[in-house]
Write a structure and sequence with these properties.
This protein is α/β, with parallel strands linked by helices. The protein has 15 helices and eleven strands. The C terminus is likely disordered.
């Protein structure tokens, strides 16, 4: 007789993961942004606690970035108020650095900056926790650094044995972020649970809905009648694809194309945003066009891409210009001396295009690809365009106000890595 194989659905798997977490960890909190993923995860936790009559309080860590859709703020307020009997809320309103790609003049902005209180988009919530509440905060800190340090802070504050931070990352929507956690061997797991990662002594991140699809999120909201951010209804009516409906900082590179939706969906907030962060109105108008490096970027007549790059650089403020030139210099040196890893198929296409290259056998990276040394090209017409060092790609970075040159595949600079390493050392992310 053939044995029947029973496959558990993602909801049942999430319940098993929550059961382990609440059994094994005495301090549990969730990172809640007000988006669909963190929202469904918070609802899962609240439902689990109430259904099982757990005598615990769930921490809720909400980084309030000041500029958000009113619908998101309302949703956060509703969830926190409706469940205040079982929630310990940490609503953070701190002027850490937040990346912005709306301006050639500034690479970051600060929410809740005291010196610009007259420009705040909205009043600070009454229950907000400010920089005075966090002894580890400093003015040079980025938002992601604050998030890292918060975990150790709350662990010590609660005098916990083990702390777990629940994060609503899904493989389908955030594959790159998940891959960094899932595949990076230097990160330790909690026991053998591949959906966890160690971040400090007795402090772990957990991703209980990593295997959920977008349809699973909305099915759960509908089936269980959970509250959700009605911003997504407006996204749907505006014709925004399901997979592109996200709640995130409106000024990052990924949000440029949809920034103008603020003007339609939340006009009152939009009016205040224009005077808050440099370049918002321009990006709102041109963020989805070739004027800011989107769609098809056209080369002006009489220019090479290298010449056009230097023309664009000449229009920038000195600080921004030096930043791009520094990154370009590092990249040119890297491709000349170490080389980037490319597949055999891509290498063959370069050979067919008569691009001078030197293919080496060994790489310091764990990959099947081979390191290829080469000079920067002006442009190249192959599908793997984004893998090849070209001046056109640098032009796209400049047009996008991509100060970190993510479009070029740049990793953080030595200075950035040094700052991060200092944080890591203090925070003890990996313990041997």
């Amino acid at each position: 007789m053939k044995k029947e194989i029973v496959t558990k659905n993602v909801y049942d798997l999430a319940q098993e993961r929550l059961r382990m977490i609440f059994n094994e960890f005495d301090n549990v909190y969730i990172s809640f942004s007000g988006g669909k993923d963190s929202g469904v995860l918070l609802n899962l936790c609240i439902d689990y606690i109430r259904r099982n009559n757990l005598n615990i309080r769930l921490g809720v860590f909400h980084m309030d970035y000041e500029i958000q859709y009113k619908m998101t703020i309302d949703y956060v307020d509703r969830m926190l108020e409706a469940n205040k009997d079982i929630l310990d809320v940490y609503r953070v309103c701190v002027p850490f650095r937040v990346a912005t790609c709306t301006s050639m003049y500034q690479s970051f902005w600060r929410p809740w900056e005291k010196g610009k209180k007259n420009l705040w988009v909205r009043p600070m919530p009454k229950d907000a926790m400010t920089e005075e509440h966090f002894p580890f905060y400093n003015a040079q800190m980025w938002d992601y650094e604050f998030q890292m340090r918060f975990a150790k802070w709350i662990h010590d504050k609660k005098d916990a044995v083990r702390t777990c931070c629940l994060i609503g990352i899904r493989t389908q929507e955030s594959f790159n972020r998940w891959r960094c956690i899932y595949l990076n061997r230097k990160y330790q797991m909690y026991h053998t649970y591949r959906w966890t990662s160690k971040v400090a002594n007795d402090v772990y991140n957990a991703y209980p809905i990593f295997d959920w699809k977008t349809t699973d999120v909305w099915t759960a909201n509908g089936k269980f009648q959970w509250d959700y951010n009605i911003l997504y209804d407006l996204y749907y009516r505006a014709g925004v694809n399901l997979e592109r409906q996200r709640v995130a900082s409106p000024f990052i590179n990924e949000a440029q194309e949809s920034l103008a939706l603020y003007r339609v969906l939340d006009p009152n907030t939009w009016g205040k945003m224009i005077g808050r962060v440099n370049g918002v109105n321009f990006t709102g108008m041109y963020g989805g066009t070739h004027a800011m490096g989107w769609q098809s970027v056209k080369l002006p007549e009489g220019y090479t891409w290298r010449e056009f790059m230097y023309f664009l650089l000449s229009t920038l403020p000195e600080r921004a210009r030096k930043n791009y030139l520094r990154k370009l210099s590092v990249s040119v040196h890297f491709w000349r001396t170490k080389g980037g890893c490319l597949s055999d198929a891509t290498i063959q296409k370069l050979i067919d295009a008569k691009v001078p290259i030197i293919v080496m056998d060994n790489s310091n990276y764990k990959t099947y690809k081979k390191p290829v040394r080469m000079e920067y090209q002006d442009d190249i017409d192959i599908p793997e365009f984004r893998e090849i060092p070209t001046y056109k790609r640098m032009c796209v970075c400049i047009l996008k106000n991509d100060h970190a040159c993510k479009y070029m595949g740049f990793s953080p600079t030595k200075e950035e890595m040094s700052k991060r390493s200092q944080v890591m050392e203090q925070y003890r992310i990996i313990v041997s």
